[in-house]
Amino acid sequence: MRKRLVIGNWKMNMLKKEALELAQRLSELLSHLNQVDIVVAPPYTSLDVVYKVIHKTNIQLAGQNVFWEPSGAFTGEISPYMLIEAGCKWVIIGHSERRDILGEDDNMVERKIKASINAGLIPILCVGEKLDEREKGYTMKVIKSQIEKGLKNLNLADPNSIAIAYEPVWAIGTGKNATPEEAEAVHGFVRETLRKIFNGIADNIRILYGGSVTPENIKGLISSPDIDGALIGGASLRAESFAKIARLIGGMPHWT
Ligand code: PEP
After folding, report:
1. Using CA positions, which residue lies closest to atom 4 of ligand 1?
2. Judging by beta carbons within 10 Å of its beta carbon (0-12, 13-18, 19+), is residue 47 exposed, middle or buried?
3. Residues with catalytic annotation?
4. Does residue 180's CB lie within 6 angstroms of at least one atom of ligand 1?
């Protein structure tokens, strides 16, 4: 049985004061929600203030990115051990904004995944096709390639040591989400691909959907069998909307 998972990706938003207020409000709204694992990924500069608020709650902390070396002359980078020291248990890797804007490729993603797992972080590997790739019918090919390359030569015994996020690039921050049927088709394919790589544990690896998730559309998405939760950008910047989504993912009644 896979426990559902919801992750808020705050991206390059929130100065410390705003981050603190958001974390405090989330702690109030979500402290009784144990049916779902809840994770937030603030920018690096707010990890410490957010950690101080959430570390005694059920909300966990993630980094938005990581470098694969433990330390050294890598100006501007952050190591897995630095994220762990800041209180992170999780790290987002291969987000499409990093792939497309910052030139991150599958080889870099693979190194980041391995370094994170070796250090004890849980990576969330993001994969997803662009609009033109979908229109040309290449969605599954792109997803297969990103997963196989990102997870190359990885031996995993524990399904909870990784999560996958399927995020169609055309749905991120655009207000256009995949329909539950479109998303489930890819999630089922991700699961099949994981079975070929990991055999026995693949059925217990969590696969999240990401791309313009809101309190209004999450119910349809989460009722699909291979959608185990969501990675949320825009709607995670408002405590009430993130909390509503988290409650719906956890199967709790909606409030208005
Ligand atoms: C994301 O950045 O991972 C994301 C899904 O963003 P949004 O929810 O804003 O589409």
Report:
1. 233
2. buried
3. 95, 167
4. no
The contacts of residue 101 (CB under 8 Å, 6+ apart) are none
Q: If you measure from the C-alpha of residue 234 to the centroid of ligand 1, how many angstroms do you get, rounded to a whole number?
A: 6
**CATH class for domain 4-249?**
alpha beta
Q: Which residues have CB under 8 Å from 181's CB, separation 6+?
A: none
> Is the pLDDT at 253 greater than 60, yes or no?
no
Residue 254 has pLDDT above 90, yes or no: no
Count CB atoms within 10 A of the CB of residue 56: 9
Give 69-96 pLDDT, tens digit per residue: 999 999 999 999 999 999 999 999 999 9
Q: Where residue 255 falls among pLDDT bands split at 50, 70, 90? A: very low
218 CB near ligand 1 (under 6 Å): no
Whole-angstrom distance, CA of residue 183 vs CA of residue 130: 14
> 210 CA distance to ligand 1 centroid (A)?
6
Q: Which pLDDT value is given to residue 256?
A: 36
> pLDDT tens-digit profile of 162-189?
999 999 999 999 988 899 999 999 999 9
- Tell me: the pLDDT tens digits for 47-70? 999 999 999 999 999 999 999 999
Q: Which residue, judged by its Cα, is nearest atom 3 of ligand 1?
A: 233
Q: Is 206 helix (H, G, I), strand (E, B) or coil?
A: strand
Which residue is closest in CA terms to ligand 1's atom 1? 233
Ligand 1 atom at minimum distance from 230 CA? 5
Closest listed residue to residue 118, CA positions, set 73, 81, 148, 163? 81
